[in-house]
Amino acid sequence: MKKSLLTSLLLFVVVFGLAQENLLEENKWSREEAHKWYAQQGWITGANFVPSTAINQLEMWQEETFDPKTMDRELGFAESIGFNTMRVYLHSLAYKADPKGFKKRMDTYLGIANKHGIKTLFVIFDDVWQKKPKVGKQQEPVPGTHNSGWVQDPGDPAHKEKKNFAALEVYVKDILKTFANDDRVLMWDLYNEPGNEGKRNTTLPLLKSVFTWAREVNPSQPITAGLWAWDLQELNAFQALNSDILTYHDYADEKHHQHIINLLKSHGRPMICTEYMARTNNSRFANILPVLKKENIGAINWGLVDGKSNTKYAWSTPIKDGAEPVEWFHDVFRKDGTPYRQDEVDLIKKLNSEK
């Protein structure tokens, strides 16, 4: 383990101890409740899902580009290898433009996923990629560029402007109340990678607010916000201390990943890795998925089907002519349902079939 990482992890443990008195205790699940719920799920495996026809969350959820036919086909690919969970990003602007239609489309999606034996982990807010989301027609993909059209929610500086919080509270509470007792919803991931794109602790007020709003609704499903950057100690401590189920991201090799698991075990809660699998970083199904199976940690990789998000290309190494990368970064299937690598889907099916 690199010294900088070890230092960050030790600081995280210190902040963890100092922050215990600041918990939002009301309606938080006890460790016993969390373990009881987790034991009822079976091993959670799946992918982060956006249909191949959508470049981002808005294109996925806006009425004009909502594509249930593609969702049905591609969730069928997931079912065929034993995946039982999809992590799916929502977007507050799609809701604001059409609240009733947005919730109806969520229900349609959940019906399709349920038909394929798949539960959904919905993501509410997101600090990653483009800072100024706009409703309407979305941009075309930049050839060979990873997630060239993905947008933040609510954006930057929108995430830190208190004038936006009242409308965001309406959105969060309406969505949670609508689906609070829907057993097709596995969990609520309240904020993806808070503090990313240089935002750091400017995200903390909104992060605290969304947890408060969720606790006030008190859905039947657990709530979480995944750890992802070990130098963000204050954010990490808040996320870990306020999540019912501990979730995290790791895109490194199995040695690093095991270190993270060993540290997070100290919280005494069930765990789900909600992002992993970046082949050219040596985070692969072959070396990570067996570790997660052995540790009984949920495994949700980035990417299901190669599409407009272009996540088969690595984060910082675009291929300007859009040529096929030598090795895909993310994703499991081509658009026609052919596996990118047959040995990978064979391993996934094997591990998913084991009791």
TrEMBL record:
<keyword id="KW-0378">Hydrolase</keyword>
<feature type="domain" description="Glycoside hydrolase family 5">
    <location>
        <begin position="70"/>
        <end position="304"/>
    </location>
</feature>
<dbReference type="Pfam" id="PF00150">
    <property type="entry name" value="Cellulase"/>
</dbReference>
<comment type="similarity">
    <text>Belongs to the glycosyl hydrolase 5 (cellulase A) family.</text>
</comment>
<dbReference type="GO" id="GO:0004553">
    <property type="term" value="F:hydrolase activity, hydrolyzing O-glycosyl compounds"/>
</dbReference>
<dbReference type="InterPro" id="IPR017853">
    <property type="entry name" value="GH"/>
</dbReference>
<dbReference type="GO" id="GO:0000272">
    <property type="term" value="P:polysaccharide catabolic process"/>
</dbReference>
<protein>
    <submittedName>
        <fullName>Cellulase (Glycosyl hydrolase family 5)</fullName>
    </submittedName>
</protein>
<feature type="region of interest" description="Disordered">
    <location>
        <begin position="135"/>
        <end position="156"/>
    </location>
</feature>
<keyword id="KW-0326">Glycosidase</keyword>
<dbReference type="InterPro" id="IPR001547">
    <property type="entry name" value="Glyco_hydro_5"/>
</dbReference>
